[in-house]
Amino acid sequence: MATSTNLEAPPAGAAEAGGAGVAALITEAPVPHPTLARTFAAMMAREFRVLRRNAVATFTRAVMQPLLFVFVFAYVFPKIGGGFMLGGAAGGAARAGAAASGVNFATILVPGLMASMLLMQGIMAVTFPLVMEFSWQRTIEDRALAPVPIRVLAVQKISAGAVQSFIGALIVFPIVLLVHASGQAPSVHVTNWALFALILVAASMLTAALGLLLGTIMDPRKMQMLFAVILLPATMLGCVYYPWSALHSIRWLQILVLVNPMVYMSEGLRAVLTPELGHMPLWAVLLVLIGGSVVFGYLGARTFRNRVLN
Question: pTM (2 decimals)?
Fold first, then answer.
């Protein structure tokens, strides 16, 4: 018995109706309206998603430096010498500053360590990712194609780095309050919360903007020079271990270190955390921190745009 298969084509009207329905669905679908705020928020969400994945490494990097400094200067030195034992010009300035004010070295160290963390975290959080994104894989291009001007991506980079810098500075507080020898607890208190917040935010923005500038002008193959030429001298001569006023006996050095932005971070935080110590006028601190954020941000955005387009 022969069998037959009856394959009938759908009526022409049904095909046309189906095509019209698909077209109607496409037409009625909501049209995305990307805005500057939404795009910026999406970029920030991506940054912090990556940061969350690397949370352990980021937290370790933020904790180790202040922990070691505090352990050595506030615990080991008092235990082995009955006080802090530093040599050289920096040590003499630190001893003079502490003796004149009647405070221990841990108190002097708190604002300086916070400034050090602001600089380290702000620069590293922006510069190192940029080096990878501008490598041969050019992973920066996926965000450069976003429907916003390239300078918005530069501002987003600075904002993300500033947040990490801000958090890194706050991590110093529990460390210095918990790690110290007996009788060597730091004496710190916030005298003006609004001014304290302003200094932290301005310093975070400045360091992140500086990180963007360095990350776009330095040769990736010479990034090791970042520590030897910039970060190490800035930390050692940034009034971390001594107040700026204690350098009055080395006048040439007191004037020379004024080119170091960390000096103004340390002195600004010293003014609101340890006002009993001599510190730089606040108007000078705020002028440099806010003005430096604007200048470095503008220069960094320009070099970033040129690097992306090239």
Answer: 0.77
